[in-house]
Amino acid sequence: MAADALTADRGAILLGLRDGALTRRVLASGGAQADFVETGGPLAATAVGLVGVPRVLVHNAVWNWSLAHPDALDVPGVLATMRAALERTGTPWHSVHLGFAAAAVGAEGPMMVPRSPVLPRESLRAAIAETARRVAGALPVPLLLENLDYWPSGAYEHVADPAFIAEVLEEAGAGFLLDLAHARVAAAHLGMPIDEYLARLPLARVRELHVSGPRLRDGVLRDAHASLGDDDYRLLALVRRAARPGAVTFEYGGTDAGAVAAELGRLRTALAA
Q1: Distance of CA 246 to the CA centre of its chain
Q2: 261, HSE (Cβ side, Cα atoms, 13 Å)
Q3: I need a labelling partner for 194 at 20 to 30 A (CA). Which of 7, 45, 160, 166 fits?
């Protein structure tokens, strides 16, 4: 699938699902229809050829890895893993997280935590942009960087700031994967209206959107990978007036197969408007 097939006019947006056990079951059973599945990490090895999966996109072929690490591409097997996933799937691009605030990070529950000191803002920006340029130069398809949400672990400092995101994308020359739930969480953390937050992002660089519903937990907005609400659909419409994404991925983390089919139907209607 050529990259330009996913950057056509506004009426040609493809709608997909995040890879996972529920997604695979729903698509195989015919319970829902998607234009693609977005896979990553070890799931990429078995995503091609699944029943009900016509196309595959790759997001984070390598897990627990940060663009902020000065030796990120020297980690054994990193580039080989990326290239193998790209070749296997025929993905039009490879998307990765923008990068975390420390060179070394690890997963603890739903968030990443620093395994090395948090970097100063300018050092972090330069490190992420440099590594992103090197990654882009080593891959046969375009590189997209995804904005992150915010968790109070230390690993998300600086990277949730829309000005920081814009600077990194410009300096790296990368495309933009805009995660709307992440944007809502980050804006809430910064005390900024979400419309203003989005207006400060380089929406002209958007090639893909991630959509899902965040939720309040103990009074704090968190990324929940839940069904979308009316506010999420309003933001989707707002972004589409400023951006031309080729693909929209519904990132559902629940267990309700019916919710997947229902949300895909509502999203198709919204994207056709």
Answers
A1: 14
A2: 11
A3: 7
